[in-house]
Design a protein that fits this description.
The complex is a heterodimer of chains A (373) and B (67). Chain A is an alpha/beta fold. Helices cover 48% and strands 8% of the residues of chain A. In chain A, helix 10 packs antiparallel against helix 11, helix 11 crosses helix 19 and helix 15 packs parallel to helix 16. Chain A is globular and about 65 Å long. Chain B has one domain. The chains are: A alpha/beta (373), B mainly alpha (67).
Chain lengths: 373, 67
């Protein structure tokens, strides 16, 4: 990404990015502004040798505030591509298991990833709607130790769609969307996965692809579109879809007593896609549910502290604990998010502490309240 | 492995003592027969090794020693 002279001139005078960065807040050595400055004056090979370029969470808070609109996350991502070629690699979390799983999905194999759906509801091989399940079946086995069941979210999505009369396509051939590979600078892996997904969706005949993961949604909407041009199908995030169809769906609700919840905006959904309203609208539609906002929400929301299954650090943990405490300060009994990774990270950070705030994904919460039978 | 669609029989763990030569031979023989029956490993694509940075750096390390 080439910065313009105008951007560089302004950049040197400012520093709002570093002041906004959740990583800099915990680790003062890390500074997006300094990274940009070094890129302007140092030999490019020296810049991409540095470990610090793996620390950026790509949460986009700097970008959303930058007066000259420098897209630092994208700028940094491109440096990661060069860094990888030099052998400068990120420290992968969970012994690299998620990276290995996505790598294996670039091979020609038929997975067995739809078993969960058989008991949960009705789905088909071909049709107008494709439900892109994403990593959930793999998270289910990887994050058992956190007492989380990420597939409950997928089951809830299927039940809600069935209730609306939709039997979406769910496929054993679906691959990882490639989001993490892309943000780890591995464009080769990303492109292989993206091509396979495009073939699978084309074979299903779907006109609309529905996502319950903001990363998949963002990646299709932006990076797939960049790679393949205009996509031959519509890309929709499920909260948008539900908010639009809500009145036609004639949902009835079961009460669980009054409860107050707070909503954590995932970076890929909020700041990077600009979708703030639909999840709030859905929660507001539920009788007996009261939505209370955290001090930093919408465009100012705090990141969940880790990105692309790499570089989990004490900085990640303090970012997460900070966020949990912010949610607790609202008095809400449940923290709701719309991203499976946010749910995993914010739950993980509470292990071995006296924090005990349930973190739920929005689709599971909706399915618990909507009468589905 | 099941999720990824890889036949679980491809992974076998067996404890064989040094004194149990016949058992070892029988085990390997039946394993080889099974692998022949299952056919090519779906993960044998060469590109997978090339794409894995750890395997790639291992391969690079080995090169100068061989040369």
């Amino acid at each position: 990404m080439q910065l313009t002279q105008h951007q560089i001139d302004y950049c040197m005078e400012c520093g709002v990015c570093t002041g906004s960065c959740p990583v800099s807040r915990n680790w003062s050595e890390f500074s997006p502004r300094q990274i940009i400055k070094r890129t302007c004056i140092e030999n490019p090979e020296e810049v991409t040798k540095r470990r610090e370029l793996w620390q950026c969470l790509s949460c986009g808070r700097c970008y959303s505030r930058c007066p000259v609109e420098i897209d630092f996350p994208e700028f940094n991502r491109q440096q990661r591509v060069a860094a990888r070629l030099q052998g400068n690699l990120p420290q992968e979390s969970h012994h690299g298991v998620m990276q290995t799983i996505s790598l294996l999905q670039t091979a020609k194999l038929t997975q067995s990833r739809t078993a969960w759906a058989r008991d949960a509801g009705k789905f088909s091989d071909k049709g107008d709607y494709f439900y892109f399940v994403g990593c959930l079946p793999y998270f289910e086995v990887t994050f058992r130790y956190l007492n989380l069941s990420p597939l409950t979210s997928a089951k809830s999505v299927l039940k809600i769609l069935n209730k609306m009369g939709i039997e979406p396509v769910i496929s054993n051939e679906e691959r990882c969307c490639g989001h993490d590979a892309l943000w780890s600078g591995d464009e080769e892996k990303f492109e292989k996965l993206a091509k396979l997904n495009m073939e699978v969706i084309a074979a299903s005949g779907a006109k609309t692809v529905i996502f319950s993961c903001p990363e998949g949604y963002f990646t299709f909407k932006n990076n797939y579109a960049k790679l393949f041009g205009n996509l031959p199908f519509e890309v929709v995030y499920l909260t948008e879809f539900l908010a639009k169809e809500w009145n036609n769906a004639n949902f009835t609700f079961s009460g669980n007593g009054s409860s107050s919840v707070t909503f954590h905006d995932p970076c890929r959904l909020g700041r990077l896609s600009g979708l703030y309203e639909s999840p709030r609208k859905l929660l507001a539609n539920l009788p007996e549910t009261k939505l209370v906002e955290m001090e930093r929400s919408l465009i100012n929301a705090q990141c969940c502290g880790t990105s692309a299954w790499m570089e989990c650090s004490s900085c990640s943990k303090s970012t997460q604990v900070e966020r949990i405490n912010e949610a607790r300060d609202t008095g809400a009994g449940t923290l709701i998010t719309a991203c499976p990774k946010c749910q995993i990270h914010l739950t993980c950070a509470q292990q071995g502490t006296d924090l005990n705030l349930p973190v739920k994904d929005i689709f599971t919460y909706l399915a618990e309240r909507i009468k589905l039978d | 492995m099941r999720l990824l669609g890889i036949d679980e029989r491809r992974l076998r763990l067996k404890w064989v003592s040094a004194s149990e030569g016949a058992l070892f031979a029988a085990e390997i023989q039946s394993y080889v027969e099974l692998l022949k029956e299952l056919g090519d490993n779906p993960l044998s694509d060469a590109h997978l090794c090339q794409m894995n940075p750890m395997m790639r750096s291992e391969m690079q390390k080995e090169e100068p020693a061989g040369a």
